[in-house]
UniProtKB/TrEMBL annotation:
Originating species: Cognatishimia maritima
CDD domains: cupin_EcSI
Keyword field: Carbohydrate metabolism, Isomerase, Manganese, Metal-binding
A GO molecular-function annotation: D-lyxose ketol-isomerase activity
Record flagged with keyword Isomerase: yes
E.C. numbers: 5.3.1.15
Protein name: D-lyxose ketol-isomerase
Coiled coil: none
Protein family membership: Belongs to the D-lyxose ketol-isomerase family.
């Protein structure tokens, strides 16, 4: 993805988020220079990979397959493993009309996916085999706003604003906006996008970036290269 396109997506996403009454935290608006100057104080944000995340999954066609994310907060895997402390994470996502977030599951993370506003969110679901692999002939069970619901293999559940689904490890899912763009909330256990996303097809999690202009704000995938060692 071109950095200029990423900068434009950031601006449009911020406008959409604000239109639904949400405001991103102050560090969202740091310039790369600001972030570098605050790197020591912001060690948790950097280590937890909080911040902007825009991906085309390495496929080069963001409009067809892509996702906007902003990680607002993220706990520590060590806390999750010991069963106490900051065991949770929260994100805002934007799924554009007919823009696919491809089929995947998580090994550790359980998550609530919430339609916070906009059009209809469509979530396509499959179950797992005994080894946790994608199983095209298996369904499963989810909670929709706390209500038990069985799903058939490949069933597409729809969620209007205010509605949500709880996904457990082993619930294979893809999603997109139907009839327009959707602002999505994600509340989950600790999030690790480096190792805990398991895709059905061999694709990447992060975009390859063409630096055609300077970044407006850093992406989480920029931190290792753009911030000085702490």
């Amino acid at each position: 993805m071109k950095r200029s396109r990423i900068n434009d997506i950031m601006s449009a996403a911020d406008d959409m988020i604000r239109s639904y009454g949400f405001t991103l935290p102050p560090f969202a608006y740091w310039s790369p220079k600001d972030f570098a100057a605050n790197a020591d104080k912001a060690k948790h944000l950097i280590d937890a990979r909080c911040g902007w995340d825009i991906t085309d999954y390495g496929a080069g066609d963001f409009d067809q397959m892509g996702l906007f994310l902003f990680t607002l907060r993220n706990g520590r895997l060590a806390d999750l493993q010991r069963g106490g402390g900051m065991c949770y994470a929260e994100k805002l996502l934007i799924s554009r009309q007919d823009q696919l977030s491809p089929m995947h599951t998580h090994v550790i993370k359980a998550e609530d996916i919430i339609n916070r506003g906009g059009a209809t969110l469509v979530v396509e679901l499959y179950g797992s085999d005994d080894q946790g692999n994608f199983a095209e002939d298996k369904g499963g069970t989810v909670w929709c706003d706390g209500i038990h619901r069985d799903y058939a293999p490949g069933e597409k559940l729809t969620f209007a604003p205010g509605e949500s689904v709880t996904l457990q490890p082993g619930d294979w899912h893809a999603f997109w906006g139907e009839g327009g763009d959707v602002l999505i909330g994600e509340v989950s256990t600790v999030n690790d996008d480096e190792t805990d996303n398991v895709f059905r097809d061999p694709i990447g999690r992060f975009a390859n970036i063409d630096e055609d202009e300077a970044p407006r704000h850093l992406l989480v995938s920029d931190y290792a290269n753009w911030l000085a060692p702490r």
